[in-house]
């Protein structure tokens, strides 16, 4: 059992109260989150030795981000302090036909302006078992892309398993640039996690035409995509999350896993949404937990999907659930009966 | 492109937090709203030159109402200041089988006690393109009825298009009195907006018997009502909103438009309700926007219905949405996917 | 028309705001409630002369519990003051697949440590018409079991009708102990209220095998259970509430009543849940109201189910609804239309 | 020990949060209060049998006012229900050099429009020991003045001791009218309570010129005023409260009592103000408590001043303190040390 | 009476609730403010035709800043929309010996990255009477310094009176750079406002040694400084505010004005502080109001000091007071008595 | 530099908002604190390797306490999990003449019912430099007294410096029992911290009569007490905090230190109080910090007093200040000027 290291940005999230629009907000709820930080918190909740690596300014706002991570048991000793600012995202919660709205103000953050010499990956991966990051990190800046490449190389060398959540963000880079940068990085990865659109956006990987019905991919289509990913990058696993966006209040949720040989399909959940930010991250964390804890592939997938289903009922970016709570749902009790 | 003038009452709305009942309330959310003010705010959001005309006391509470209108870009220069009080309505939000509850405390407000000499309609309509009011305004007092009649006459004379939302309120007047007063006023109007009950309550206009199925009007029935309205008052348009009250939390929503020749039927939305007050007003505003912006009749109707669908997801009386957001929904994207 | 006396514990309920988890809570909503206190408040709302009997410490927290009861019109003059503490329960609200979570901290409360001499039942039942308690009260301590037994004996002697809600709580006692203690007490009762599991857990009463379909009891099965209860304890009435736990956000709700001769089945409601704590208590109170107010059996049952359906839309333990509101729903208007 | 009856208006108080100005308020704190209601709550806190008499509408807002009074133990059985509205006052809290601001919206309230036949004073005073009202009540309307006159006559006849707090409010009537109406009513009173300005404003009673130093009355001046009051109306007691308005945040506070023979002067307190509304009422209640509980004149005065000093540290109109807390301060412990 | 134009940055202010430290904050109060925007709001409150010129992004956060200004009557038609972000400052309120703490995150804001071609000063000053800015604006970027220089030249040419508040901010530039840039700009100004340290920090202007007592400047010292400023820049007026920092909760406050001939000294206020941000800006606005409204020099100064004294009692950056309220204080009533 | 170990209880603190009384509270602020936990948080803030030892239940409330400690950097790995409940204290904030009020509900907490075998002190003190506890811990139960005695013996043996804050609590034990138990424990201690009353209450140590003036001890008196303490228990240091309780809002604050040879007296602060709970603990932590960081005795004392002065301006039990902030105040800047 070794360290699980995640690397990326943690941002200050500013959100109007309840269903208020930005124009109505007189106060913003204060939450900290980011793809990889969210994964680290989940893993700490599952009693894994989770480390989050980033760069944060020396001021009080940077310290608040550190404190939130510490509160949930993430080890913050590897965080570099310096630079000018904590990245921000403003997040307005949608309802019914009105979508949630995210405004990013993350340029010039400490991590976006970090330098390669800020991180000593050899030391960081000392005693590590797993390394996880998302496609957001190399998109932050050219230097961040270079740092990420250094990180995966060092991880590979140290025998650390590497997972990446493709997480394409069009505000950060073009599909062309993403494809080029990620193409280089994913070569070193063992596990790729993607939502139903990422593979095409980042790598142009599409299912065969016959696998499309009524505009949507069929299960066969997703298998086809998963297969292409595994083959192109020589992966151990590809996992694809499947979100059905019925409205801002209601979503369907399931996922599939491909281990290069067999396909696994999860249960599907109908979710009333409390907060869907971090839904994908909580899936990734659940999968990492399952794969590092001796679960079968099917069980790891069900754990990951149940975990991320629960995330949608929790405010904030972090998935504050216990192994026990996830297991109860994964094993079939979705009745929501009061636990006394 | 000229001024769009609306005239009526703006009230202080006092509402318990969340789903609290009045008996539980320790604080009241403070919002300002009223049929015509809500329309003015919508139109300002759509970049129209919106004016709201009313009378408000010179004290701080009156000023707060002015400030809220200014905040959203409504021109308040035509508001008369004087009188004793801002009208109030207490509003408790319902859920599931429990209906929302409104208690009015609007008697003796500045506008209810306004005098004809308070308003110089000739000046007010100088440069105006459209005039809108609701059936609530003439119901406030006999003098308000007289003022409204003066207003529509002046608008007619100035060549201003006139729309009225029938908006029958049984706490303010009887159906008999409403019919008599409104019968006189609507003669001057070009567009009548009504919900599924107003036409009968105000004017006794009912559909033919054959148009009723299972207690509800059929589409044919509504067409019949629309036709009668257009014919009786020589209107350019009649629009009817159709609310299906499944519960306090879920409603169906659609509308129809009749231009004296053709009938147009909108899409229908299944809505999870955040706040349904002002739903009808946001429809009226959407319709005025469409009709004054070169939209086709069908497009204007779809814009109006999509706009009011979104209103149901927004707290308060005002429909704080942009043209772009309405268009996205009107054009078919109701998936509620996060806008990043 | 006499006093309706309820006897039990009233606790301080501490609940995170909205859908926050305990780990996120920076403030706890403060509410007071408990099975029998909830019934008393409902009955006071229905203009019954409701008394709540308990023991509360002399400090300010005890006084707060008294104040809340007084606020809603419950007579608190029979409450004994003394002992060390107000029992507490922490209550985290669930959503969708995430269940609500209750943590009890009720040991050593004033009522749990009360003594027989604290209560003079003869005086308490002077002028009383009905006595109600739940299976929680005798479970608090052996002394509480003894006090309850004294109470039912005194009530019987005074000719007071006695109702009990079985309300089995596994954290308080084993099924064995519950069966033994309650078996003695229920002998004195006239009305037993139970949910779909209580009869089996407390008394081992199960329906015949043939009455079970797909793991769930059929209507026939519940009738069978009701019949056994009535026969074993020579009851006037048995009522069984039927909760269908679709998720933490949505439940089905109905109930049945058996008067020793005829079975009555209520309407069934699909509920969006605001707060389901106290749902069963509000049913019991509705039933007592109906049975003491000359309602027919069917009408009393419909009143009870409609009342408890409304409870699910109200924050806190208490069911803050009026007779009129319950009647409107019981008579079929579940449309949730705004009451102006 | 008999009933203590108070009669007047209870209003809904709407107050911005903390030190917000009206223009900044997004929610209003909800509190109920009014001169005589405040006195009733204090007396209930001191375990007196306190009744509050008024008229309130049958709607939920009227019920909220009743509930608040019940919560603190005031008997509300004599409250008449009917009429249109609960009077409102908006209250913005001042600080330092910025004064608090009160905007009244109390016209047309149920009590202001009450009729003489609404109240059966003979029954109301059955078993009563004391009757208290303020100069606000007869100022609400001519009918209210007539009702008050009937009340004092009935009280006199029933042998009930009568106290009045002059409480001149310039927004409600002129000094001329106040003088005329109150002159008639005070004839029946036994105790007059006034602040440093009331006597002159209502009755034109001024101290001799020699008693004024630097614009302020000397102690001798207040004695002179008290003497004139006692003599003109044949009173048992006159009490005068002395507020030194240093700023909106800091006040000095003391009082004097004259029993027709001796003068008593209280300690003086330097107060940091939390909420000064109801300060005078809490003095009146403290005095009534002392005079009905066998205190010496000096002790009753000290109790009244200490009670009202504590009121200034409590949010809302009501003085939520116990006898014990008042006694501790009255006996000299103003150190504010933590009570564990 | 012409336009009063102010130019600078308006920021989003994020502040923990009450006296919470950053590390404790779970929500941030949302307020918008900035030196010149604060002045514009004050002037709009005083019924001046106030315009605020800046650049704000086209997103919702930029719109929120516009809305806040509109709410208080500032004309926002001259605001340029574009660029990336709204500048932010985090503001933690101090108390007693603990100072308030401000963390700036204002780099790369739309105004800091604005270009000269964004502003057409000739049009902006069309019909203008007065132009005001602070030393913060030219400190935002070299381009902002250039824009400001263009602005003062254009204002001069248009015959507009120009005032500047020196407002030295060490986080934005060095004293050397400030001196050089401001030296060029102030040449065009008519009125300089400064606090007790600005003149030395920006221009190295110190009082003669003999004017210093116990480390503090004497009145003579400030006169000496004012004289030097007027002489060096050929000013009409110099005003100096004098803050005595007793603690974070208590300050003394006064000011002096020099018109090139006579010195005027204001009253001095002892203030309990609610929020001291914007204190200096409210002084500047008060002075501009006085000087543009025919006040005598002494009266203008007293108005400015009274206005800014009141600002310290108001939450947020904006000074939400009326002319009447300022006049009442300036004329000597600092008693804080309730205004009913 | 070794571990600093503290041992005691951490409680859930439930506090009404602002200056609300318990009877008004609709929510309780949630904070965790306790004498020794407060010290641990301070030391973690000062970058010391702080450990807190206690026993907490395995439920979510216990976890919340752990999370709060982790958030501020305290090492929680030595906390034992088990038992039934987290102790609670209710805390109502006083103002002016109204004292704060604390109601304890701490009996039967996990730590109060802990057993000696729960703690392996030898391991706990492995690598430790300092051990701190207060007189509250042995007062929790006889077993806690025994555990504390084991702890000090183990600490002594391990060469760890031991400090104790006498902290007498009359609700937990009598002065007689305290004297007996503490007399045994303090023998092993090196540093005793006490407030102005503790020494007499716990050990009956009084100053000579001649050292009392006007009811208060003179400086000489405190020296006398300190000397007796040092002599009786062979201490390295005694520190005495001196609180002057002017009112609940204002206190004077200073302290003295005696090292067996010289007396040191600190500066004195006039404090406006935000929250005084934890004031003494923050002094202890400051003193430990100074004494373990090479400060002179006078400097350590000044650091401790400045730190605790700042604590009074911070909400909650924890003193959330940095070394830098304390140093700034200790070195004389109490002006509260904004830190930008």
TrEMBL record, chains A, B, C, D, E, F:
Q: One Pfam family from the UniProt entry?
A: PfkB
Residue stretches spanning the membrane: none
Record key words, sorted: Kinase, Transferase
Keyword Transmembrane helix among record annotations: no
Cite the Carbohydrate kinase PfkB domain residue spans from the record.
2-312
Q: Where is the signal peptide?
A: none
Q: Which family does it belong to?
A: Belongs to the carbohydrate kinase PfkB family.
Name the chain's protein.
Answer: 2-dehydro-3-deoxygluconokinase
Q: What is the lineage of its organism?
A: Bacteria, Bacillati, Bacillota, Clostridia, Eubacteriales
């Amino acid at each position: 059992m070794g360290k699980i290291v995640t690397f990326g940005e943690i941002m200050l999230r500013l959100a109007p109260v309840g269903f208020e629009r930005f124009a109505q907000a007189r106060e913003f709820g204060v939450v900290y989150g980011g793809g990889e930080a969210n994964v680290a918190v989940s893993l700490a909740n599952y009693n894994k030795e989770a480390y989050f690596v980033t760069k944060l300014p020396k001021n009080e706002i940077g310290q608040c981000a550190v404190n939130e991570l510490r509160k949930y048991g993430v080890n913050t000793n590897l965080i570099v302090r310096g630079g000018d600012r904590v990245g921000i995202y403003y997040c307005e919660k949608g309802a019914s036909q009105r979508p949630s709205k995210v405004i990013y103000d993350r340029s010039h953050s400490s991590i976006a302006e970090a330098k390669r010499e800020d991180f000593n990956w050899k030391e960081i991966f000392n005693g590590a078992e797993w390394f996880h990051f998302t496609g957001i990190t190399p998109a932050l800046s050219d230097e961040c892309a270079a740092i990420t490449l250094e990180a995966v190389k060092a991880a590979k060398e140290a025998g650390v398993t590497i997972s990446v959540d493709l997480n394409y963000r069009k505000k950060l880079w073009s599909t062309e640039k993403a494809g080029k940068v990620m193409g280089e990085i994913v070569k070193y990865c063992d596990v790729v996690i993607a939502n139903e659109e990422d593979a095409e956006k980042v790598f142009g990987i599409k299912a065969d035409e016959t696998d499309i019905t009524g505009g949507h991919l069929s299960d066969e289509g997703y298998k086809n995509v998963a297969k292409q990913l595994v083959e192109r990058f020589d992966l151990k696993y590809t996992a694809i999350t499947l979100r059905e966006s019925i409205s801002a209040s209601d979503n369907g949720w399931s996922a599939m896993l491909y281990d290069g040989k067999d396909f696994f399909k999860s249960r599907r959940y109908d979710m009333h949404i409390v907060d869907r930010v971090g839904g994908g991250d909580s899936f990734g964390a659940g999968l990492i937990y399952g794969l590092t804890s001796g679960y079968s592939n099917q069980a790891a997938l069900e754990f990951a999907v149940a975990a991320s289903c629960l995330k949608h009922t929790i405010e904030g970016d972090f998935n504050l659930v216990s192994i026990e709570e996830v297991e109860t749902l994964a094993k079939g009790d979705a009745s929501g009966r009061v636990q006394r």
